[in-house]
Amino acid sequence: MTASPAPHLPGAVLRPVRGHHAFEACVEQLATAIRLGVYPLGSTLPPERELATMLHVSRATLREAMAALREAGLVQTTRGRGGGTVVTLKPRTPPARAAARISAARRGDWLDALEFRRIVEPGAAYLAASATLDQEHLGQLERAHAEVAAATKTAQHRQADSRFHLTIASLSGSPRTVEAVTSVQATLHEMLLAIPVLGTNIAHSDRQHAALVRAIESGNAERARKTMEQHCDDTAALLRGLVG
Amino acid sequence: MTASPAPHLPGAVLRPVRGHHAFEACVEQLATAIRLGVYPLGSTLPPERELATMLHVSRATLREAMAALREAGLVQTTRGRGGGTVVTLKPRTPPARAAARISAARRGDWLDALEFRRIVEPGAAYLAASATLDQEHLGQLERAHAEVAAATKTAQHRQADSRFHLTIASLSGSPRTVEAVTSVQATLHEMLLAIPVLGTNIAHSDRQHAALVRAIESGNAERARKTMEQHCDDTAALLRGLVG
DNA sequence: GAAAAATGGTATGAACTCAGACCATTGCTT
DNA sequence: AAGCAATGGTCTGAGTTCATACCATTTTTC
């Protein structure tokens, strides 16, 4: 008798200590940031030394990642003062949707992301509405909203939408919340790329966005959360059918 | 003009690609699992080869971590068939609370964890109540609840409480949710160790636990969430005062 | 009692990552 | 035109981590 052995938790609690090699992780983070529109088309990434510091990675490793991005056509690099790495982002439509016969594990992760999203994004909206926002924050929010409302092409709209949601998360002032929303948005983005593009009801979505902005600006936390919940539910309903 | 340069998001979105060396991460995960009571006193950890696989780490690296745990007095190891590594856990009260003059960064992370917790744990409760639970799940939940209600000594109670919350998370069936709750509970645990132990109002806490179990078993998701929110708020109120 | 099985203990060479220094190119300032 | 500054490009040696064997000890099985 080795005393009460562990119950059911170990399998759930212990998780891989790190997904992959450092440079792969860099590629993933940067590519995600670019695809989500954190660095829009034509913008310049921070200098290598700075990025390396941000990611807690040696410059050598970061450079390997940059080389990969360059080879993938996401960025271009020029030397010398005023040079740097700019985003070119050939949107790289899903590398052959045909090949994307979605594995069961991936599908499971997607569905999980939808569930988790319906927890964290409403939570982020709640926090954002609870926070006291200065002019700069309000400006960020309204700008993000204006961009998503103005976007016409789907790819643009997708990026602007990601940026909008990430902006709300960043207004929450909670790093863990930002991280969770980033992860969820990345997966969402992946799903939308792999799934036969559905004509997202943009008008409907924009009405919800507008309501969100109003709720957050007026500090109505409860309402911001409800609105975001509805927004997540609407998106999820569309996607679940096509994935499940 | 390098096109719309990135706004405010990069700083929030890009995060360290991996905190530390692999073996440190192993130590942290295992120590956390032990302290949270996933592996209770006297229980045997899985064989090294198995743990290494779970954590996606080479056995060599895992063994370094085990050596550290052994040296720290958390576990003991015996060889041969039927041997293995058992939890001895000299509870190691906070390695000198005096030395724990808490850095500002740490304090910030703690407060962030409290905010994030109030998002994810209620969400986990909501999902758990929404899920259809079979006999085994119900048994896990009731056992976890019984243990936390029966615990007398504070250290025991703390572990049982962690297990209770992790069990609810695991009932949600959402890996991302489990991960989030695990992270939050680990930080909470750290806080409680470093803070002059307050006589948590155990009776009050247990009433809330009981209400949670009822709500989850009856499938009342909305109510489970509200109850958990209240529970988190009550805990947070106590802690914020002592940390802020 | 002998063989098998399960477990921890040890060793080796390849690959990855790091930190730091230095080089090369380009634009800005004087 | 000369020098400075900012940026990417290259090199090197040390430290980690990995994968894969193989060894040693104990219990179980026959």
Automatic annotation (TrEMBL), chains A, B:
Keyword Transferase: no
Domain HTH gntR-type span(s) in chain numbering: 20-90
Keywords, alphabetical: DNA-binding, Transcription, Transcription regulation
InterPro entries per the UniProt record, alphabetical: GntR_C, TF_FadR/GntR_C, Tscrpt_reg_HTH_GntR, WH-like_DNA-bd_sf, WH_DNA-bd_sf
Pfam hit, one: FCD
Keyword ATP-binding applies: no
Protein known as: FCD domain-containing protein
Organism: Nocardioides pini
Biological classification of the source: Bacteria, Bacillati, Actinomycetota, Actinomycetes, Propionibacteriales
